[in-house]
Amino acid sequence: MSRARLILTGAALVLLGPPLAIGAAALSGVGHRWVDILAQFVGPALFTVGLIAIAVVGFRLWVAAAATGLTLLVLAVAGWPQWFPPTGTAAVGAPEFSLYSANVWVGNTDVGGMARSIEAAGADIVVLVEVGDTPAGQMDRIVGAYPYRVTGNRNPGKKGPSRYVFASRWPLRTVQVHAEELDAHGLVAETPLGPVTLVGVHLTRPWPYQYQWGQIIQARGLANWRKAYSGPMIFAGDFNSVSSARIGRQIQAETGLIPAPGWPGTWHSAMPSPAAMTIDQVYRSPDLALLDRRLGRGNGSDHRPVITRFTRAAPPPAG
């Protein structure tokens, strides 16, 4: 092996170190904050290693190519639970409905972008998180096609005042459950499937950006919602965590809700979506089947919108 090829191989192996550590952290299932923060980055790591794979194969660096293949395998296995969760089996002939959910970002004043994104989605129900004062004053323009709307209380927030906004083709009624430190708003939509409880969610940022117990306490609050209401339920919004990391696993264990697939990613919207992290989640109860999950048109936010489509789940087979 020539000196140049030896240097390139060494450089590739060094570059593979951090992605391999991310994959190992995700596979470990350890919930410690130092490990969990790494587990959030499986998607970006896989994208990065894919680029490295193209380079090392192109230069015919076969030792590095073998190491890259192993790293890709580790990351693919680590990311599988968030990218390919069960979707459920749809009941034959059951009605459907679609949901548009997005963190539109409190500093976003692109009212036209929000309106175009929602119109292009054509969803039956809209859940908007972190709506700032400017768009809040122009809801007729943004969700004017929806006859039923509910706006949550104005939250002062560190980045400016914001609120939740729900809009629907069908009647809505607000419900509330006390949950310590939880930023969420809930209502019931009268869909063709019957009443569906919808909870708009915005969890705090993870450690080290906020105190380490914040998300854990708030995830427990979501479990209170699930205990208080029976029947179909959906959590949608910005969870500041991928579904396969500590908080996602906690939500699934304590509520029994199932995440929608987390690929392609939602944040940051400036990144290519395959390289982004899916921290904008949609969780459903098992009595709903997920028919489709896709990303919506950009709306001026640093988060991409998520569009999901649901129907009634088929009952489990007898026996």
UniProtKB/TrEMBL annotation:
Keyword Transmembrane helix: yes
Keyword Transmembrane: yes
A molecular-function term among this protein's GO annotations: exonuclease activity
Domain Endonuclease/exonuclease/phosphatase intervals: 101-303
TM regions (residue ranges): 33-54, 61-80
InterPro entries found in the cross-reference section: Endo/exonu/phosph_ase_sf, Endo/exonuclease/phosphatase
Keywords of this entry: Endonuclease, Exonuclease, Hydrolase, Membrane, Nuclease, Transmembrane, Transmembrane helix
Domain of life: Bacteria
This protein's name: Endonuclease/exonuclease/phosphatase
Organism from which the protein derives: Brevundimonas subvibrioides (strain ATCC 15264 / DSM 4735 / LMG 14903 / NBRC 16000 / CB 81)
